[in-house]
Specification:
Elements: E1 2-3, E2 9-10, E3 12-15, E4 20-23, H1 24-27, H2 35-40, H3 42-45, E5 56-57, E6 62-63, E7 73-77, H4 81-90, E8 107-111, E9 116-117, E10 133-134, E11 137-143, E12 159-166, E13 169-170, H5 171-176, H6 181-184, E14 190-198, E15 208-213, E16 216-222, H7 230-238, E17 248-250, E18 272-277, E19 281-286
Parallel strand pairs: 7-17, 9-14
Antiparallel strand pairs: 1-2, 1-6, 3-4, 4-5, 7-8, 10-13, 11-12, 11-17, 12-14, 15-16, 15-18, 18-19
Magnesium ion binds near residues 75, 77, 167, 250 and 253.
Length: about 290
């Protein structure tokens, strides 16, 4: 979703390399829906979305959150081995069995849709509520075709595409309240974007994911190193919950979060978190006052 210079908010096709964008309504006269409408009707719409003409300069537009999911975001905890180990060492994990170095089944929690903010929007500091603000760079999967009881072998047919998420976490709340929901769901705790990339244009098995705080590289891994891969996550979730178009699955974060350091290095007002996934783009957000 883009905010254009004329004040209009619209779904648009983006060419990052050429720095151009095309409002969907200009390619599909009469279209007045959002990204969710595109995803729901993708098979019919996609062939008609080829950009034509020069479009508009991308640099004159501002990226808004690319998707406002229809319900809570599904998230996966401890899904990279080195991160599971750093979390266990940190003392902030109240959920692991003694001596457990990686979970035996996917650890699933959710974040509310109200956590979602766009690229460049400040992450609220929530200073009176948490003293332990942390970042988590993640690959997010966007569900296209819904369904229940989706088999691993057919799971990728249900993926519409991908984006970048920052699973911002209040570590003190996550530990104190045992269940993770509260520490993960403060307003503004899920920067998402800068845009969505459709499944045909991205290979999640090989992408490099990196995260910087200011200019210091903190996380550097491959999205193919998940303990539980994307088909397993879709099969696990859909076994008893019908997935819907526009559902988001945050696949987990690699090692290098703030609690991985000794002492922990929590986010401070004025710092900037920048996450890059090769093949998708860069999502960056300042920490608000
Ligand atoms: Mg996470």
């Amino acid at each position: 979703m883009l905010h254009l210079t004329d004040g209009q908010h619209c779904a648009a096709v983006v060419d990052e390399r050429e720095r151009r964008c095309w409002p969907v309504a200009e390619l599909l006269p009469g279209f007045d829906g959002d990204i969710l409408a595109l995803i729901r009707d993708w098979e019919r719409i996609a062939p008609r979305l080829a950009p034509s003409g020069h479009g508009r300069p991308l640099d004159e537009a501002r990226c808004l959150a690319p998707l406002r999911p229809p319900r809570n975001l599904f998230c996966v905890g401890k899904n990279y081995r080195a991160h599971a180990a750093e979390f266990a060492r940190s003392g902030f994990d109240r959920t692991a069995a003694a001596g457990e170095d990686a979970p035996e089944a996917p650890v699933i929690f959710t974040k509310t849709p109200q956590t979602v903010i766009g690229d460049s929007e400040p992450i609220p500091r929530h200073a009176g509520t948490t003293a332990a603000l942390d970042y988590e760079a993640e690959l997010a999967v966007v569900i296209g075709r819904g369904g229940r009881g989706i088999a691993r072998e057919r799971a990728m047919e249900h993926v519409w595409g991908y984006t970048i998420a920052n699973d911002v976490t209040a570590r003190d709340l996550q530990a104190r309240h045992r269940q993770w929901f509260l520490g993960k769901s403060l307003d503004g705790f899920c920067p998402l974007g800068p845009w969505l990339v459709s499944a045909d244009a991205f290979d999640p098995a090989r992408a490099r994911i990196r995260c910087w705080v200011d200019d210091e590289l903190r996380q550097d891994a491959c999205t193919g190193d998940l303990i539980f891969d994307i088909p397993t996550l879709i099969a696990t979730l859909s076994a008893g919950i019908a997935l819907q178009p526009g559902d988001l699955i945050l696949t987990g974060t690699p090692a290098g979060v703030g609690i991985g350091f000794e002492p922990p290095r929590f986010l401070q007002a004025g710092q900037r978190v920048r996450i890059a996934i090769d093949g998708i783009g860069t999502l960056q957000n300042p920490i608000g006052a």
